[in-house]
Design brief:
Mean pLDDT: 83
Strand order of the largest sheet: 2-1-3-8-7-9-10
Largest sheet: 7 strands, mixed
Radius of gyration: 23 Å
Low-confidence stretches: 256-261
Structural class: alpha/beta
Oligomer: single chain
Number of helices: 6
């Protein structure tokens, strides 16, 4: 074998080794990232999780689901598939099990989701919603002494729509439950998008085995749909504290936040 042929062979071997090492490093990074996602959401590969479906608040049928809530469920299903878990769709009034056995995503506020209502009473007693009986929006979200009121575009430019995004962890080793409770179906969809897009940041800030509760705001949904979400407050402490019934809630003033992507 001549020197030139030997150099070519050695070069090919070195290139193959470098490519294999690069592939291995990328594969290990992907596995680590996937492992962190699975840990945060409580969905190891091959496990089952619950997608608890709410009803359409304006429909007389208990089986009717808003289109935007269907979109939210589709995005949650994609997340479950990414984790290698299996999703079980179940109606909000059909779940008869405690927390911790399976990861759970509970969609919708307490007016449209009985499971959400039970979770709030049992685990987040500082949170309450009040529904408009005509427009069927969750008009007021109250956490502790702060009140976040839904406002239509006729009341303030772009309107004001709030969401509660919470992770409930009942004990070490148990699976978490995620509450996604917006004041409208579009805001439910927006909160799901925020959760999927920011789960790494949320895991760094709140850990992978703890409870947290956040209030988010959907910015001008008539123009931007569910895409533009701003965090408003970390309300974990207030949500976990049973409120003083004699206290008067503080209404968050209407002010236009600086939009960001």
């Amino acid at each position: 074998m001549t020197d030139s042929v030997l150099n070519v062979v050695l070069g090919l071997v070195a290139t193959g080794i470098s490519a294999a090492l690069g592939w291995l490093a990328q594969n290990l990074r992907r596995r680590r990232r996937l492992g962190r996602v699975r840990e945060f959401f409580g969905m190891p590969g091959g496990t089952e999780c619950l997608l608890v479906v709410n009803r359409h608040a304006a429909s007389a049928s208990s089986k009717s689901v808003s289109r935007n809530d269907v979109f939210a469920l589709m995005e949650l299903s994609a997340l479950v598939k990414e984790c290698g878990a299996r999703a079980e769709l179940v109606g909000h009034d059909e779940v008869r099990q405690g927390l911790g056995h399976k990861a759970e995503f509970c969609l919708g506020g307490p007016a449209s989701n009985d499971r959400t209502a039970a979770h709030l009473i049992s685990w987040l007693p500082g949170v309450s919603f009040a529904q408009d009986p005509v427009k069927h929006h969750e008009m007021r979200l109250t956490v502790g002494s702060e009140e976040y009121r839904y406002q239509s575009p006729s009341e303030t430019p772009g309107g004001r729509v709030y969401m509660l995004l919470a992770r409930i962890q009942t004990g070490h080793g148990g699976r978490p439950a995620f509450l996604i409770a917006g004041q409208t179906a579009t805001s439910n969809h927006a909160a799901v998008r925020y959760l999927v897009a920011n789960h790494r940041k949320l895991a760094r800030r709140h850990g992978t085995d703890g409870t947290f509760a956040l209030v988010l705001e959907l910015i001008n949904s008539s123009a931007y749909g569910p895409d533009l979400v701003e965090p408003v407050a970390d309300v974990t402490r207030q949500a976990l504290t049973r409120p003083d019934t004699g206290a008067t809630p503080t209404v968050v003033p209407a002010q236009a936040p600086a939009p960001s992507s």
